[in-house]
Specification:
The chain is an all-alpha fold. Helices cover 68% and strands 1% of the residues. It contains 26 helices and two strands. The protein has a two-stranded antiparallel ribbon with strand order 1-2. Strand 1 and strand 2 form a beta hairpin. The chain starts with 7 loop residues before the first helix and ends with a helix. One of its GO terms (biological process) is nucleobase transport.
């Protein structure tokens, strides 16, 4: 005889499984929604949902302009400009060679993150949750850690360059530290509120920034028409710069569908891809080329060279706008705030990735982790502010390797083993470890590929034997080798453990 204290739901294994896969917001409300602060925040429109799949009844339309402006605003900023300056300053490339490298490698590297945005509407899941269907429930923790390092790193770089620009207009009355805190606080406010406010902010944040860059080009453009003669480019210098560019663009792949999981599944994937691709490509290529052009002539203009001293990109932009006096300072302030669009969206994804990194934190509302991200980014930015260029080169050069391997593994899983069919992703299994892949194949492919990647790397502190003759081909090798290895590893995993 069954105990009268055991309910039918508790005794039914199928019911227990449904409860196990219950969307996180329902689970979260058991513990958090009784708090009056949480209830008030929800009434104000703050998004509570974390990593749980978005049900169909909560999906919204009109996605094409939204996703275009998310990526456009994230990249219309000083960091895009700064990454372009690396071509002449660090790799010794001339303006023409820098711009050609920027164009062709971004045409390639912007495609994967743009494509992954099309998966959000089909599955209603965040990017790293989708990745569980390759890496498994526990195996995804390693890519999630790498993704968190990448996002925190970009937030730090953006905070530094925004703080530098804000401090440069104050005539030494405002320190870089205060500037960093101001930038981080604005970014926190937007990311704390969630996807609705984020979409609204990104639709308008780019307008004053773009106008300011156009004015800056109009004032300083006369100096850009005659760049100094450049040393002929070599394969190692071009590939070294290309690896840095890859680290800038391809790493967006780890957060792409975070911003599209609320879209309806019947939208056009082609239009969504094109909207995202242009949102990446147009600002990145344009501003990186502008950065390369300005950096190539800055040494011949005393005011620009003084402002640029120590790699202070904000000071360089302030020097370019200095001829128009106080209005130029106002425009520099607008440029300093441009990084908030990138940081706020990145904080939003960080808040989701923390829940995937530590699954037990799924009961904590998403917005709490925006505070955690800010608490991490601000002190590190302050400490690293005076080593900006070293941090930028080293970070972008390294972060592209893992992202390239990640992209290859996810694509092979999707096209080969799931046959480009969203129905082969069991959405109810998103947080049930035994109904997901073990992740052994993905981890083995991702880790093993570095046996070839490391000899192909060229960094300030290490140059591999292959890279000594070819230049840095680490991110290309990571993509090819990880993809090649994943196919047999996944085949063995399926035959030993079973297909999920």
């Amino acid at each position: 005889m069954s105990s009268p204290h055991v309910s039918k739901v508790d005794s039914d294994p199928e019911k227990r499984l449904d409860d196990e896969t219950m969307p996180a917001p329902i689970v979260e409300k058991r513990g958090w929604s009784t708090n009056w602060v949480t209830r008030r925040l929800l009434r104000m429109g703050v998004e509570e949902r974390g990593i749980s799949p978005v049900p169909l009844e909560e999906r919204v339309g009109h996605p094409y302009t939204k996703i275009f402006f998310i990526w456009f605003s994230m990249n219309v900023n000083i960091l895009s400009f700064s990454s372009g300056t690396l071509g002449p300053v660090v790799f010794g490339l001339g303006l023409r060679d820098s711009c050609l490298t920027i164009l062709f490698f971004n045409l390639l590297c912007c495609a994967p993150p743009a494509y992954f945005t099309t998966w959000g509407p089909k599955l209603g899941m965040r990017q790293m949750i989708i990745s569980r269907y390759s890496f498994g429930y526990y195996g995804i923790i390693l890519p999630c850690i790498m993704n968190l390092i990448g996002m925190i790193g970009f937030s730090i770089l953006n905070s530094i360059v925004g703080g530098q620009a804000l401090a440069s207009v104050s005539d030494d009355n405002l320190s870089w530290t205060v500037g960093i805190v101001v930038i981080a606080a604005i970014s926190l406010l937007v990311s704390f509120c969630g996807i609705t406010v984020l979409h609204w902010y990104e639709r308008i944040a780019w307008i004053p920034v773009l106008i300011t860059f156009i004015i800056t080009l109009g004032i300083g453009g006369k100096h850009l028409s005659n760049p100094p003669p450049a040393i002929p480019a070599t394969a190692p210098t071009v590939l070294g710069f290309a690896a840095t560019l890859a680290g800038f663009a391809i790493t967006y792949s780890g957060l792409s569908s975070d911003f599209t999981s609320y879209f309806r599944p019947n939208i056009s994937s082609k239009k969504l891809f094109l909207s995202a691709y242009l949102g990446f490509l147009l600002p990145i290529v344009t501003l990186q080329c502008l950065g390369a052009a300005v950096a190539s002539v800055s040494s011949s203009i005393p005011e620009w060279e003084t402002g640029y001293e120590g790699g202070n990109v904000g000071g360089l932009l302030e020097a370019m706008l200095h001829p128009i006096g106080k209005f130029g300072k106002f425009l520099t302030v607008l440029l300093s705030l441009s990084v908030a669009g990138n940081i706020s969206a990145t904080f939003y994804s960080i808040s989701l990735n923390i829940q995937i990194f530590i699954p037990s934190l799924v009961i904590v509302p998403r917005y709490i982790f925006s505070l955690v991200a800010t608490a991490i980014v601000v002190p590190i930015s302050i400490v690293g502010a005076h080593r900006f260029y070293d941090a930028l080169v080293n970070f972008l050069g390294l972060i592209g390797y893992w992202a390239s391997a990640y992209v290859a593994i996810i694509l092979i899983e999707h096209f080969v083993f799931r046959k480009n069919d969203p129905s082969l992703y069991d959405i109810k299994a998103w947080n049930v470890p035994r109904r997901l892949p073990s992740g052994l194949a993905a981890l083995a492919a991702g880790i093993s590929c570095f046996g070839v990647v490391i000899p192909s790397m060229e960094q300030v502190w290490f140059t591999g034997p292959i890279a000594k003759s070819t230049g840095d081909i680490g991110f290309e090798v990571a993509f090819a080798v990880a993809g090649i290895l994943y196919f047999p590893f996944r085949w063995l995993e399926i035959h030993w453990i079973g297909f999920v």
